[in-house]
Write a structure and sequence with these properties.
6-stranded mixed beta sheet; alpha+beta; 13 helices
């Protein structure tokens, strides 16, 4: 029996009728589709490497302690691995519609919080795996590790991992209450130990406090917003899903020519997407910025393979009011460098860890209240997760591409996740079904944003062609070619 961390518990507490807190992915494989038993054998053979896949959540009575993970005595893999098919030939639009429907359904709290759909009937004799994993179990970075664990790194399926699992008896309510009481007794002792460490290392303590102070100052301005009305508002329980494709080679070429990081270039392309979306909706973008939460992994190298949440956040302004792609990238690069210096992510992590000292009942009520309050200060979420740059296989079939899925909640109607695999950089876009019927405008704009940055930097696309034809350039740009910009020193890639 393992108790959830404060952050893991937060993702569970904020889930509601319209807030579905699962992350996921859509992986597309070469055909023909494997037999259902082969997929079951592939996943069953890796279950010992992912203990959470056979555990479920138990709530402590009266919310007097954080939830715990317990073994599911009635675990059946057939419940979690499902099979469906699209009418042939199933195109990209049909697959995206299916993903939207699947992701609109919450995971069953009485069972382990994951499921996988095998989807047959894709065009070109391909098939897909659509996966859902609750955010309380895993964040984006460890979720990437999990994908690499479940799949194989060669066409030859790997041998099953030795499995000696026997479910432990489920604890009674009385034991849950008793363990929660023990935790309350232990927590003050841990605080005393922490104070002793602070006294013994005053210099490090001062440096940490100074970082936190400056980080909190940088977050004060987040209470105000320019107010981009169509991006925020009530959401329903149904989801739309779309994607955009990019090249990691192209993005790195832009970074080398213009400076910044991979993440800066990605955010600049997304800015073009939101600019196109807002203009298509008749909105005024002059002087406006879309505020996005950018999750930042604070997982240490030694923590790879631990399937919990180690993530904080920074808040960035996407300058949709700027028509020139170079100016957009310059603005984002300067801003992100300032955010990193401000240690915003450190502040977010510290604030989250402090919730571990609050009564879990108050934490639960506070988080549920927070997601119901008007929150126009954040318009979207943008998360960039590096994936494996080597081929992955499922039952001997090679994974061609994968698109991530990120949840939306509260009054945020659009979320974007980015996933790199084998040189590709793919964007998965989640939208509220009722209010975002035009997600394709955003995805086309993201792809156009990469192309125009390539053209601006005067570097060829990875396929050898010029980036953007003259007629595709934004009208706001001058018709004459600008002098080539001098490269600036690149920051460390993100």
């Amino acid at each position: 029996m393992d108790r959830m961390s404060p952050l893991d518990a937060t993702f569970l507490h904020i889930e509601g009728e319209v807030n579905h807190m699962h992350i996921g992915s859509v992986a597309i494989f070469d055909g023909p589709p494997p037999a259902h038993d082969d997929v079951l054998a592939m996943i069953r053979g890796k279950l010992p490497l992912v203990p959470r896949y056979r555990q479920k959540v138990r709530m402590v009575p009266f919310d007097l302690g954080r939830p715990v993970w317990v073994d599911d005595e009635h675990f059946h893999i057939d419940y979690h691995v499902r099979h469906t098919a699209l009418p042939k030939p199933g195109g990209a639009e049909q697959l995206r519609n299916l993903v939207g429907r699947v992701m609109s359904q919450q995971l069953d709290r009485s069972r382990p919080l994951w499921q996988v759909w095998v989807v047959e009937g894709l065009e070109d004799d391909r098939w897909a795996l659509v996966s859902q994993v609750h955010h309380c179990m895993v964040d984006g970075v460890s979720g990437t590790d999990l994908l690499a664990v479940i799949l194989d790194q060669s066409p030859e399926p790997s041998a099953p991992v030795p499995d000696h699992w026997k479910p432990q008896p489920e604890p009674s309510d009385l034991r849950l209450l008793g363990d929660a009481a023990v935790d309350y007794l232990v927590t003050p002792l841990e605080q005393v130990r922490g104070l002793r460490r602070m006294v013994r290392a005053p210099r490090q303590t001062f440096e940490r406090a100074n970082e936190f102070y400056h980080a909190m100052r940088s977050m004060v301005g987040l209470a105000s917003t320019s107010g981009l009305a169509t991006l925020n508002g009530p959401i329903g329980p149904q989801r739309r899903y779309a994607w955009a494709r990019g090249s990691l080679t192209d993005v790195k070429a832009i970074r080398s020519a213009l400076g910044g990081t991979v993440n800066d270039v990605v955010l600049a392309a997304i800015t073009r997407g939101f600019r196109d979306l807002l203009i298509s909706r008749g909105g005024e973008v002059e002087g406006c910025a879309v505020r996005t939460m950018v999750p930042v992994s604070v997982r240490l190298p030694g923590e790879r393979g631990t399937y919990n949440n180690r993530v904080s956040a920074m808040f960035a302004e996407l300058p949709v009011g700027l028509a020139d792609p170079g100016e957009r990238l310059d603005a984002i690069r300067a801003q992100m460098a300032g955010l990193k210096d401000s240690k915003q992510a450190v502040a977010g992590e510290v604030l989250t860890s402090l919730s571990g000292f609050a009564p879990p009942m108050l934490l639960s009520l506070g988080m549920r209240a927070a997601v119901r309050l008007p929150q126009g200060n954040v318009h979207t979420v943008t998360t960039n997760v590096p994936g494996p740059q080597f081929p992955l296989y499922a039952a001997g079939r090679r994974m061609r591409e994968a698109f991530p899925y990120v949840p939306i909640a509260s009054n945020v109607r659009i979320g974007i996740a980015i996933f790199s695999y084998l040189g590709a950089l793919n964007f998965g876009v989640t939208g509220d079904y009722d209010t975002t019927p035009d997600l394709d405008v955003l995805t086309r704009g993201i792809e156009a944003g990469v192309r125009e940055l390539l053209d601006y930097a005067e570097v060829p696309r990875s396929n050898g062609h010029r980036a953007v034809k003259p007629r595709e350039r934004p009208a706001a740009r001058t018709p004459q070619r600008r002098p080539r910009r001098q490269p600036v020193p690149a920051q460390s890639p993100s």
